[in-house]
Amino acid sequence: MPRSNRPRRSGRAAPGAGGLPTSLRRPTVTEVSYAGAVWAVRQVRPNDSGRSYRCPGCQGEVGADVAHAVVWPAEAMQTVENRRHWHSVCWAARDRRRPGGSFA
Ligand SMILES: [Zn+2]
Asked: Region Disordered: what ranges (predicted)?
């Protein structure tokens, strides 16, 4: 039997490591406690999807073309229904912007 298999040592020498397009990186999700629940939070980069959302922190519009935070209940799957888009600054200041029961 000819040994045509390549040596299985390619794990370490991935070309372009460190230079991957951001789309191939796993988004960083953190979990935080807020308003009596645990929330998963993902920071979203500006994109040109043209969508806009309602920020629960200030009730203002969050355009997809600004960096913002997507937040959803950590114990649940992220769905369109349960995720919220916050301005990054509003999310950072959430303790001062605690919404009146509509969010949690
Ligand atoms: Zn806001």
From this structure: 1-27
The verdict on residue 60 lying in a domain is yes
> Residue 11 falls within a domain, yes or no?
no
Distance, CA 55 to ligand 1 centroid (Å)?
5
- The pLDDT tens digits along the chain (104 residues) read 667 766 665 555 555 556 656 555 667 899 999 989 999 999 999 999 999 999 999 999 999 999 999 999 999 988 989 999 999 999 999 988 655 544 54
Name the residue among 102, 104, 2 with its Cα closest to residue 59: 102
Domain count, the chain: 1
Its domain, for residue 74, covers: 28-96
